[in-house]
Write a structure and sequence with these properties.
Blueprint: H1 3-6, E1 8-9, E2 11-16, H2 21-25, E3 32-35, E4 40-47, E5 50-57, E6 60-62, H3 68-85, E7 88-95, H4 101-105, H5 126-141, E8 146-149, E9 152-155, E10 158-161, H6 166-169, H7 176-179, E11 183-185, E12 191-193, E13 199-203, E14 212-213, E15 217-222, H8 239-260, H9 272-276, E16 286-293, H10 300-313, E17 317-318, E18 326-327, H11 328-351, H12 359-478, H13 485-688, H14 691-890, H15 909-915, H16 920-930
Parallel strand pairs: 2-6, 2-16, 7-15, 7-16
Antiparallel strand pairs: 1-17, 3-4, 4-5, 8-13, 9-10, 11-12, 14-18
Helix pairs in contact: 3-5, 12-13, 12-16, 13-14
The chain binds adenosine-5'-triphosphate.
Adenosine-5'-triphosphate binds at residues 17-18, 20, 95, 97-103, 108, 225, 292.
Domain Kinesin motor: 9-316
Organism: Rehmannia glutinosa
Main location: cytoplasm
Length: 955
């Protein structure tokens, strides 16, 4: 497998800063020590009185004494070279606040003066050095190049362009929103910051030669402090800031975990930082993390956390690729495209007629917009329906109002008619009263006449008695009193005069009576006519009234029915609306429930995931601890084995030494034997060969043998010494080994204790995490339950409300119905009452009118009778008086006895005149004085039905 396929691990460097002045002043103990050669960082800890060291190995380690230049040359130069080769590279600093991230990345150029010949000051950090290297290299290559720089700040999840023109950066705080730059997918799996200022730093003169263009990118990132948010002093106002920073760093941690553990889903999208660094973490960029720590004890916890974090990040594998080299023409084409796009953007920005948003958000917003449009359409339809309904109701209401107005105008007209009729009735009643008054007046006059007639009759009878007495006296004196003839003649003439006078009077009376009677008859006729006309008018008015009342009743009924229909419609409408509301509420509640259920499922998944992760972590930690222990045990065993094998080896060595000793002895023996054999052979040969030569040879051999013997002995002595030395060394080694073994064993035990303690601690932490997750789950379930309860409560409240409303509608309907029935009944009753009343009134009037007519007729008859009787009586009186006078005065014979002259008591003319009835006007005057018209009531006006006696007895 090639490197490209396998991937390259993220390079992790560790830099520990020197003690700060404060820390030095406070004599802060050192807990971090760096071994740059071994690339190790060890952290000393004292846990429960035990001293424990933790060691981390990184790709490179820079201790407190490491200079900026050292770090740059050892770690960054190769990276910048790779950038110049066409790779994309990222260097980011990670660590607690105040541990030197900015110092490492930027350095302290401002404080320090630059060196000669454009040399950077020794305090200059990675960024200025990298920039210088890039330009130096490009210049030295004498190549055509172009360098662009972008400088952005990611703060509170908001990206700000630090290269934006100054006037823009000076805008008010509220305008800052506009300046925030959106992060967008570039469509090639990467991200770009839309609208980020690109500064072209410098460009060498153009050389038309090479057609291929290399392109490399270097990202230099200075992260925020990695410490706990609670300790960063983030309170209240800064909570969001802390939260957002924390979110970025937490997401970065999660991304690293996901990459290290090869999880399927890497949550790059959860923060802008991870979106920006996406290609640097598990992508095609070469990445170098510079972890910075403090040596002081008070930062221990954060230091350990940073070390753990950085150590984990070591396992991230990136697959760096050289950026595609492109043809100049293609690049120019691309650049033209880019220019066009930028032009469009500038135009849109200038005209403010364009908006740029991420694709996902666009699609999301598009779908939201569609859903909202549908909803709005539906709502529009509902509103339209409601509007129509309202319009219908309004039209009905208007019609009802119109009908009501019509009815009220009709009612007014009827009222007016009724008033007129009432007036007419009152007038007619007045006229009737007047008539009745006149009748009474006439009755009174007639009774007065009767009284006068009676008085006259009485006077006439008195007169007759006196006359009879006088006639008797005169008859007795007739004879004697001749002289009284003259007187008698006078008497007769007086009587004749009286008779004539009486006749004249009676004639006048008769004439008066006849006139009065005819006047009365005329009057009565007039009354009758009036009564008839009144009756007709009244009947007509009553009929009309009756019709009007019936019509008004029918109208009322129809009106009530219409109202009831409206009410029914309204009720149906409101019931439908209420049903709709209820359905809507329940659907809302259902949708909330569904949403919650969906959310719950998702949350449960998340929690399950979390729990699984935690339990897998727990299992892994346990496994790790077990493995660690096993490894400890294995290494202990291995050590034991090694020591035993070393023992065996040493013993073998001893044995070998001993064997060497015995071998030397054997050699010695063999040598001795060999010498003896040689001597023997020599002696045998010496007997046969030249003696001198043999003697010489013998001497030589002897000497040689002596030498050999000496050397063998020396060898043996040396070997013995060597064996004893080896023996000493071995036993020494054995002892030392024993010591070392004991020491290692105790170390292992310590380590095992430490790891057990850590294991316990981790288990505790994991348990806490699990508990937290459980609590969160419970909390979530409780929230869900309460939300569900709330939803159903809400729905039931709405339903009960709807029920109450519909019940009240029903009640209202029933009430309206009963009211309608009651009104209808009352109206019918009152109409009938009116009709009955009018009928009764008409009946009464008819009766009274007929009674009037009867009375008038009787009256007229009586008057006629009176007139007839009167004329008969008058004739009779006249006749009787004439007969009586003629008889008395012609048949008178003297008796011879002259009675005593007596003066007849003849009423005087004045007396007789006083008996005359008063003139009509005087009688009317008297009647009116005694009976005022105002106090006059119809009941008293019943005319006397007893016919008055005619003036029959006057004479
Ligand atoms: N290696 C170093 N050698 C000398 N001084 C250092 C070193 N590292 C850091 N310092 C000093 O420590 C102080 C804090 O460093 P710096 O501001 O770079 O920390 P930081 O991690 O960037 O903090 P923050 O997260 O708040 O930005 C500075 O005064 C800096 O000069």
């Amino acid at each position: 497998m090639s490197v490209k396929e396998k991937g390259v691990n993220v390079q992790v460097l560790l830099r520990c800063r020197p003690f700060s002045d404060d820390e030095l002043r406070n004599n802060a103990p050192q807990v971090v020590s760096c071994n740059e050669y071994q690339r190790e960082v060890s952290v000393s800890q004292n846990i429960a009185g035990k001293h424990i060291d933790r060691v981390f190995v990184f790709d490179k380690v820079f201790g407190p004494n490491a200079q900026q230049k050292d770090l740059y040359e050892q770690a960054v130069v190769p990276i910048v070279n790779e950038v110049l080769e066409g790779f994309n590279c990222t260097i980011f600093a990670y660590g607690q606040t105040g541990t030197g991230k900015t110092y490492t990345m930027e350095g302290e150029c401002k404080r320090s003066k630059g060196g000669l010949n454009g040399e950077l000051p020794p305090e200059a950090g990675v960024i200025p050095r990298a920039v210088k290297q890039i330009f130096d290299t490009l210049e030295s290559q004498n190549a055509e190049y172009s360098v662009k720089v972008t400088f952005l700040e990611l703060y509170n999840e908001e990206i700000t362009d630090l290269l934006a023109p100054e006037d823009l950066s000076r805008v008010a705080q509220e305008d800052k929103q506009k300046k925030q730059l959106p992060l967008m997918e570039d469509g090639k799996g990467g991200v770009l910051v839309r609208g980020l200022e690109e500064e072209i730093v410098t460009s060498a003169t153009t050389h038309e030669g090479e057609e291929l263009i290399k392109c490399g990118k270097l990202n230099l990132v200075d992260l925020a402090g990695s410490e706990n948010i609670s300790r960063s002093g983030a309170r209240e106002g800064r909570a969001r800031e802390a939260g957002e920073i924390n979110k970025s760093l937490l997401t970065l941690g999660r991304v690293i975990s996901a990459l290290v553990e090869h999880l399927g889903h890497v949550p790059y999208r959860d923060s802008k930082l991870t979106r920006l660094l996406r290609d640097s973490l598990g992508g095609r960029t070469k990445t170098c993390i510079i972890a910075t720590v403090s040596p002081a004890v008070h930062c221990l916890e954060e230091t350990l956390s940073t070390l753990d974090y950085a150590h984990r990040a070591k396992h991230i594998k990136n697959k760096p690729e050289v950026n595609q080299k492109m043809m100049k023409s293609t690049l120019i084409k691309d650049l033209y495209g880019e220019i066009e796009r930028l032009k469009a953007e500038v135009y849109a920005a200038r005209e403010k007629n364009g908006v740029y948003i991420p694709k996902e958000r666009y699609y999301q917003e598009e779908s939201d917009r569609k859903a909202m449009a549908d909803q709005i359409e539906q709502m529009g339809l509902t509103i339209e329906n409601h509007q129509k309904h309202i319009e219908e109701l309004q039209a009905k209401y208007d019609r009802q109002v119109e009908q009501c107005t019509d009815l009220s105008s009709k009612l007014d007209a009827t009222q007016k008619d009724l008033n007129q009729t009432s007036k007419l009735l009152a007038n007619t009643e007045d006229e009737l009263k007047q008539c009745q008054y006149s009748l009474k007046e006439r009755d009174f006059i007639i009774s007065e006449q009767k009284k006068a007639e009676n008085a006259l009759a009485h006077q006439a009878s008195v007169l007759r008695a006196d006359l009879e007495k006088s006639q008797k006296d005169n008859a007795s004196l007739f004879l004697k009193i001749a002289r009284e003839d003259k007187l008698n003649t006078d008497n007769r003439s007086t009587v004749n005069c009286f008779q004539a006078d009486l006749t004249r009077q009676l004639d006048a009376l008769s004439k008066l009576l006849a006139g009065s009677t005819s006047q009365q008859s005329e009057h009565l006729k007039c009354v009758e006519k009036l009564c008839n006309s009144f009756f007709n008018v009244h009947e007509k008015a009553a009929d009309e009234l009756k019709n009007k009342v019936s019509a008004s009743r029918a109208l009322c009924v129809s009106h009530f029915e219409a109202v009831q229909n409206v009410v029914r419609l309204h009720k149906a409408g409101s019931n439908a609306a209420l049903d709709e509301l209820s359905a809507l509420a329940s659907s809302h509640s259902d949708s909330i429930g569904e949403l919650l259920a969906a959310e719950a499922v998702e949350m449960n998944l998340v929690f399950d995931d979390l729990q699984k992760t935690l339990s897998s972590h727990q299992g892994e930690v346990t496994h790790l601890a077990r493995e660690l222990r096993q490894r400890f045990n294995a290494s202990t065993e291995h050590l034991m084995d090694t020591s035993e094998s070393l023992h065996g080896f040493l013993e073998k060595l001893l044995e070998e030494s001993k064997r060497l000793g015995s071998h030397a002895t054997q050699v010695d023996e063999v040598q001795t034997k060999c010498i003896a054999d040689f001597q023997k052979v020599y002696e045998e040969q010496s007997r046969s060969d030249s003696e001198k030569l043999i003697a010489d040879m013998t001497t030589l051999v002897d000497a040689r043998l002596g030498d050999l013997k000496d050397s063998v002995i020396g060898n043996k002595i040396f070997l013995d010494g060597h064996i004893s030395t080896v023996d000493g060394i071995t036993s020494d080694l054995k002892r030392k080994w024993q010591d070392c073994f004991t020491q290692t064993e105790s170390n292992f035990k310590d380590n095992a204790d430490f790891s057990a303690a850590k294991h316990c601690r981790m288990e505790l932490l994991l348990q806490k995490c699990v508990n937290t997750a459980d609590t969160a789950l419970e909390q979530w379930q409780r929230t869900q339950q309460s939300l569900n309860d709330m939803g159903s409560q809400h729905a039931s409240t709405i339903a009960s409300h709807v029920r109450t409303m519909s019940e009240s509608n029903e009640r209202h309907d029933v009430e309206i119905e009963s009211a309608r029935l009651m009104v209808e009944r009352d109206t019918a009753k009152s109409g009938e009452d009116i009709i009955h009343f009018i009928d009764g009134l008409s009946e009464k009037e008819r009766a009274s009118v007929s009674e009037i007519l009867t009375t008038a007729r009787a009256h007229s008859e009586t008057i006629e009778n009176l007139q007839r009787d009167h004329s008969e009586q008058a004739t009779c009186i006249e006749q009787h008086a004439t007969d009586t006078f003629r008889q008395k005065y012609m048949d008178y014979e003297p008796t011879g006895s002259t009675p005593i002259r007596s003066e007849p008591d003849i009423p005087s003319k004045g007396t007789i005149e006083s008996l005359r009835a008063m003139p009509m006007e005087a009688l009317q005057e008297e009647f009116r004085e005694n009976h005022s018209y105002e106090s006059f009531t119809g009941k008293e006006l019943r005319p006397s039905v007893t016919p008055r006696a005619p003036l029959s007895q006057i004479n």
